[in-house]
Write a structure and sequence with these properties.
By secondary structure, the chain is mostly helical. About 75% of the residues lie in helices and about 0% in strands. The protein is built from 21 helices and two strands. Strands 1-2 form a two-stranded antiparallel ribbon.
Length: about 525
């Protein structure tokens, strides 16, 4: 099994190289991309079963260098679960983009550029999830930055170039902070291996630990779009092509959340900043959803709700109990799938109606009932209505907070409950205007929503376009997966609970070396 671990990264990189060489052969590129992501998903599923049943993580020293001198790839339940979910999402979005490219040509998603960049993005995501040292995690972020900048500026329109520049500047600032933190940690502790850092961190004065802790959190909070460092996201994501927006919204911010989970649960157990995280979580929830209520464009509404839901993940992380960490991971899995699905559904709306503005789009329930269903199901899930996974995840977070029972937790619960109702209002307002509203309802309705007239729009009116079956099929498949998160919530949540318990158990270098030896035997 140990030989499978490096394949999680090497296969996408090899696939990207083949796709680049086959730049003039669309079918070859599509075949390579689909096969690569399918194989990675299968490998990750096998590894998840192995590490969950065995209970021991898989550790691999790249190049045969002994731990901790070489690069260590580390697969535990959390890594394997997130790679399974990420590969499924990446594959579904890829199929969606294949349909879009076949229908539109290379105007929005130039195939010769898209497929290599997409597979490099996948390699960066997978490498981040299995990185056993901070510098390898930094390299993963840089791989993501390079690939995401290419993808976010596909088509080279003015708006995409402008938002792409903002995105890369913000990402570079985050990278500089992260690299500075790595340098300081290496100078103080003599290692960048996460297990060794956890062992040696207690030797440092609390003030030094706090400085290192804050620097890492600041870098990861920018990646995760935690308020007030979330200003870049609502303007960056909506301008990209629909498949790119979907995968960015679903996965890229979660890499930042994942890094925060590793930092809080393994590196700084004795130097917590939980009160600061709770304040940031509540502010992120509130600001994100208030921003969504002021939008008149579907992609911008979803981008602001994305920010709000990041607050729930930070909330669960700040509670810092095994129950809350497990609930956070379940909620993260739920949000990756549901948020991606909603952006794909909005991509179908844009093709059907020629716009994503809720002030312009009307009567889709009558004209496109299937698209209406594909939007409605994940929308009420994201809004947290029972019995869907969104409700289950939020209930688990509130239950973990109630178990702690401190006054600040009660305040957080009230704030979380109030803000959990507002996303449903924003999404259902969009539903009523875009799907239920008919042409003859315009005068009365527009008078009620006149306050949205000044809201910014991320795209101009375009012509209606044909919707290939593969785009509808991939979106339908993702909707089915969102439902499966509810149907199989029990076993999925059990895995997340085991992850939460394991993460808060300090791991030693001796244990890591034993895991590597057991993996090789």
């Amino acid at each position: 099994m140990i030989a499978l671990v490096p394949l999680l990264v090497t296969l996408p990189l090899l696939g990207a190289a083949i796709a680049l060489i086959a730049g003039k052969h669309r079918r070859v590129q599509v075949g390579v991309s689909v096969v690569t992501l399918t194989v990675v998903c299968a490998i990750a599923a096998v590894l998840l079963v192995v590490v969950d049943i065995g209970g021991n993580p898989l550790a691999v020293s790249v190049g045969g260098w002994p731990i901790p001198f070489g690069i260590v790839l580390y697969v535990d339940r959390l890594s394997a679960l997130l790679i399974v979910v990420s590969s499924i999402v990446l594959l579904a979005v890829l199929l969606f983009s294949v349909g879009q490219g076949a229908a539109d040509g290379d105007d929005d998603t130039p195939v010769s550029i898209f497929h290599p960049s997409y597979l490099i993005l996948a390699a960066g995501i997978f490498n981040a999830f299995i990185a056993g040292d901070l510098f390898n995690l930094y390299v993963s972020f840089e791989i993501l930055l390079v690939a995401s900048y290419v993808l976010i500026t596909l088509g080279s329109t003015e708006s995409r170039i402008r938002t792409g520049v903002v995105y890369i500047v913000v990402s570079l600032v985050s990278s500089i902070l992260f690299l500075s933190a790595i340098a300081m940690i290496y100078g103080a502790l003599g290692t960048v291996n996460m297990v060794q850092i956890a062992e040696r961190m207690g030797e440092l004065p609390q003030e030094t630990q706090t400085v290192l802790h804050l620097l890492l959190l600041l870098a990861f909070a920018i990646k995760a779009a935690v308020f007030p460092l979330s200003f870049w996201l609502p303007d960056s994501y909506p301008t990209a092509p629909a498949p790119v927006t979907a995968v960015f919204a679903g996965l890229l911010t979660k890499v930042g959340v994942y890094a925060m989970i590793r930092t809080e649960s393994q590196l700084f157990l004795d130097n917590d900043l939980n009160l600061l995280l709770l304040i940031a979580a509540l502010a992120t929830m509130i600001v994100g959803i208030l921003g969504a209520l002021a939008q008149a464009e579907l992609k911008r509404i979803l981008s602001f709700t994305l920010v709000s839901h990041i607050g729930y993940m930070v909330f669960g992380l700040a509670i810092a109990t095994p129950l809350s960490i497990g609930a956070t991971i379940y909620y993260m899995v739920h949000h990756i799938v549901v948020q991606t699905t909603l952006f794909l559904a909005v991509g179908l709306v844009e093709r059907q109606a020629g716009s994503t503005s809720i002030l312009r789009v009307k009567g889709l329930m009558r004209g496109a009932p299937l698209i209406a269903a594909l939007y409605f199901i994940p929308a009420i899930n994201l809004g947290g209505l029972p019995p869907f996974s969104g409700f289950i995840g939020k209930f688990a977070l509130f239950d973990a907070a109630a178990e702690v029972g401190t006054p600040i937790m009660m305040v957080m619960m009230v704030g979380g409950i109030v803000t959990s109702l507002l996303p449903l209002y924003a999404l259902m307002r969009a539903w009523n205007l875009s799907f239920w509203r008919e042409e003859d309802d315009s005068a009365e309705t527009e008078a009620r929503i006149s306050y949205l007239d000044a809201a910014p729009e991320a795209s101009v009116q375009t012509e209606r376009r044909v919707i290939p079956r593969i785009m509808t099929a991939s979106t339908t498949g993702m909707v089915a997966i969102t439902v499966a998160l509810t149907v199989f919530a029990g076993p999925i949540y059990d895995v997340c609970t085991r992850i939460g318990s394991a993460l808060l158990e300090p791991m030693t270098l001796v244990q890591l070396e034993q895991d590597e030896q057991e993996s090789e035997s």
